[in-house]
Amino acid sequence: MHNFPFHSLTKQIFVMNTRRQFLQKITGSAVACTLLTKTSNLTEVAPVPYDGPLLRVAIMGLGSYGTRVADAIKDCKKAKLVGVISGTPAKISEWQKKYNIDPKNCYNYENYSEIKSNPDIDAVYVITPNGLHKQHVIGVAAAGKHAICEKPMAISVKECNEMIDACNKANVKLLIGYRMHFEPKTVAVINMRKNNEFGKILFFQGLTGFKIGDPAQWRLNKELAGGGAMMDIGIYSVNGARYMTGEDPVWVTAQEIKTDQVKFKAGVDETIQFQFGFPSGAGASCLSTYTMNNLDRFFLNGDKGFVEMQPSTGYGPIAGKTHLGPLTQPHTTHQTIQMDEMAQIILQNKTPVVPVDGIEGRRDMEIIAAIYKAVKSGKKVNIKYA
Amino acid sequence: MHNFPFHSLTKQIFVMNTRRQFLQKITGSAVACTLLTKTSNLTEVAPVPYDGPLLRVAIMGLGSYGTRVADAIKDCKKAKLVGVISGTPAKISEWQKKYNIDPKNCYNYENYSEIKSNPDIDAVYVITPNGLHKQHVIGVAAAGKHAICEKPMAISVKECNEMIDACNKANVKLLIGYRMHFEPKTVAVINMRKNNEFGKILFFQGLTGFKIGDPAQWRLNKELAGGGAMMDIGIYSVNGARYMTGEDPVWVTAQEIKTDQVKFKAGVDETIQFQFGFPSGAGASCLSTYTMNNLDRFFLNGDKGFVEMQPSTGYGPIAGKTHLGPLTQPHTTHQTIQMDEMAQIILQNKTPVVPVDGIEGRRDMEIIAAIYKAVKSGKKVNIKYA
Predict the structure, then answer these.
(1) Contact A202 B303 (CB under 8 A)
(2) Alpha-carbon distance A7 to A55, whole Å?
(3) What sign results for the dihedral spanned by CA atoms B229, A189, A331, A173?
(4) Model-wide pTM > 0.90
(5) B211 among known catalytic residues
(6) What ipTM score was computed for the predicted complex, to two decimals?
(7) Distance from the CA of B176 to the CA of which of A111, A173, B122, B269 falls in 20 to 30 A?
(8) Nearest-CA distance B262 → chain A (Å)
(9) A273 with B271: Cβ contact below 8 A
C-alpha cells in the first residue's frame, strides 16, 4: 500500500493523524452527498451538490484521447481538469480557453518537473505515446504527484517495474487507465461471475480490432507504440480475458497474420490470434487486429450460463446479454466514471472491483510479452508473473 | 465425374443414350412440378405431386441419428426410406413397423452384400460409428449401391482414400452427410459471400460444442470414434470455416485442454482450440468441446460486412444476422432438405452450392489430422491436400 499526501484536502484534514480518522471523515462526507427527503407518499433521493474531496488533474499529452478524457472530466463530480502538459504552445492556449485552464498550471516537457511546487495539481494523467509512458510516469512521480497512465502501461515488463518502483519510492499512486473496470455493464458481469451466476467458467472469447487509418501515426511506429494492434486494441482482449474469467492465464499460444508489410513494418503487428489456458482449465481465444472494422465482441461461457457483449469495450454504450436477459445498466461516458472512481481510489483508498494499479498494468504487459514470444517461436509459452 | 446406373428411373429413361437427354427429361419434369394458375386477380403457385425420380434409401445403423434421418425422410419428395441394415433384429422389426419397411429390404451386417441383387434400393446411408465407416462404405460400393456416409467420413485420411477409390471403381457415388451445405440460411450466407456482399473475408470464428453424457457411449471410444469432440462436433467448425470463408486453410495451430482424464481417455479430445490461416490472409479461430452446453456460434467478418449465426449448426432452426439484417429464410428439417438434395445429386447430377463428395470429406479429415498433429507437436502445421 502506498502512503500519499492528501494534496486536495482541506487543512482541517491534514491535522488528522491516522488513515482511519481520514476515512471516517470521507465516509461521513460521502453519506452527506445524498439526502432522503419525503414528499407526499414517495421517498425520493435528492442529490445534493458534491462537496467532498476533488482530484485536481493535469493531462499530459493533448492528442485525441487526451481531448476525450478532458471532455469527459467536465461531467465528473470528484475530479477536475486543472492543468496541462504539452510540447505544443498552440495546443496549450487552445486548451486554456476550451477547458478554462489557469496559465500557472500549464507546463511543457522541459519544465513539468516544476509541478512539484504547484499545490493545485494532485495527479497527472499521462496520455502520451506508449513508448514515452515510462519516462513520463517517472517524471510525474519525481514531481511528487499521483500518476494515472494510459494503457498499455509501457512497452516492456522492465519499464513497468521501473515505473512501479519510482511511484512506490515517491509515495505516489500509480493507476492505469483501465476504463472498462468501472463501466457499469462490465462491472455487473464481473459481479455475476463472482457470484457464480455463470457457474464454472469454461471459455472466454475476445475479438477486438479496428481498421487503422493514417500510416504515419505513432501507433504504427515500433519505437513509440512498442508493437502494433496488440498494444492498442488487443490489450482489451488480454485484459478482458482476465477480468471476465477472474483468472490470469498460465500459458499462451499465438499466431500472427500480416497482409500489409508496408503499413505494418517489422515489430508492428497487424493481426494476432492468441489463446490462453487458465489454472482452472478454462480457455480463451482472442483476436487483435488493425484490419477489421468495429470488431468488439466478448463471449464468456460457464457451465451454468453465458454472457455476450457487443460492443464490449468501445467508447460508446456497451451492449450485451446473459442467459438471464439483456444487460440494462445505464450508460455514462466511460472516462467520466473512470475519473470519478480514480479520484476515490487516490483520495479515499477506494478498492475497485478489478485493480487498476501498476501490478495490473504489468500483468498485461507480461502476457503481451508472452504473446509476442509465442508468435516468434510458434510454441506455447508458459507465463510466470513477477 | 462418376458414371452411375439410374436404378430408380423408369425404363423409358434408360433408353436415352446421352446425359443431356437425361437432364432435359429431368428439367422438364422439375418444371412440371409447379403450375401457375390464375384465380381472380392473384397469381398463385399450386404445387402438384412430385412424380420425378425417387432415391430409394436404406439406412445402415439404426441409432438415434439414424432414427432422426428416417423421420426426416418421411417429408422428402425425392427420397424414400425403403430398407435397413442392422445387427439388432429387434430394431429391424421395430423399424419395419414404424417406417413400413418391406421385409425383403432388411439386412444385417453379415448379409448386406446381397443388396447387390436388390433392384429396389438405390443408396445406403451409412450411420454407424466413425471407425466403421470405411468398411461399411466399401461394402456398400461392393454391392453396387451409392453410398451416403455420415460425417466424419472416416477416422484417417488413408481410410478416406480407400473409400473414394472403392466408390470410383464400383461406379457409385459417395456423398458425405454435410447437412449444413443444404440448410437455407447457410446457403444464403454462402451465396452472399460468393456475391462479395461481405467484401474481402478477414476472419471466421466457429465455436461448437456440447456437454457429452454417458461415458460408455461409442463417441468416447477411441477405436470407434477416432478421437473425441473434434470428430463429432468440432468438425462443424472445421467444415464451417471452409464453407463460410470459401477457402481451405494452409496452416493450423491447436491447443488441447483436458480437465477430465477419466471420461476423456488418451486419444479422446475433450476441448481443442484451433486456428487456421487461409491463402488470402484471412484467419479463423475455432473451438471444439465436449464440456460446454449448446455452444453453437459462427461469426464471419469481411471488410464490407459480417454475419453471426447462433445456432449455427444445430438440428433446429438456424438463426443469425448480417450487417444488412436478420436471416429470414424459413426452416425445414435439415435432414429432409439434405436427402431431397442428395437424391438430385445422385439421380440428376445436381451440383450443390458446396460439395458433399468424398473429396470434401477427405479434406476435413486432412485438416483434422493436422489439428491433432498440431496439438501433439505444439507447432504450426502446414496442410497439404491430396
Answers:
(1) no
(2) 9
(3) negative
(4) no
(5) no
(6) 0.82
(7) B269
(8) 15
(9) no
